From TrEMBL:
It holds the Pfam family Ring_hydroxyl_B. It comes from the Bacteria. This is 3-phenylpropionate/cinnamic acid dioxygenase subunit beta. It comes from Sphingobium olei. InterPro entries: NTF2-like_dom_sf, Rng_hydr_dOase-bsu. Transmembrane segments: none annotated.
Amino acid sequence: MNQTTTLERPRTGATASLEVTHALTQTLYREARCLDDEDYAGWVAMLADDLHYHMPGIETRYRRDTTDQVTDLTRMAYYNDSLGEIKKRLTRLETGTAWSEDPATRYTHIVTNVEVEHTDKADEFRVFSNFYAYRNRNERDEDSLIGSRIDIWRETGGAYQLVKRRIILKHNVMLSKNLNIYL
């Protein structure tokens, strides 16, 4: 093989280029704006057909308990959804019977600490980020959700689509009356 025409693929876990990191950071910001503006059609367009959206429920345990609470898909989860299930949840909002959304909730998503790595697939990237999501409805209902995410984003036709998201909330107890927010 001619070395001048062969591109060596970066190793798995290697930091992505500044250009890719910037593009994916902007994608995360665009996603947050879509969610804040309730532009769910715009958000769904950013989701891959083979999406897995997962937010496990995590119990407070002693360090010596090595039970896998994060990747065990048979355990309780707030979200363990495919694209079809996400679309079904969003369709419910259009029915007029979603009491938790009338009057509308106001959202703000803040995304920070973005890191991008290569995966073993040339068109997919692992993206680590932290988030703060604030929501307010009616006069006094406020919720703040804080956590971290590990995503897989796939490059498709010059854009990126979310393939997998694992959300880890930093709360010991979920105090929200409902969970009508995407993170």
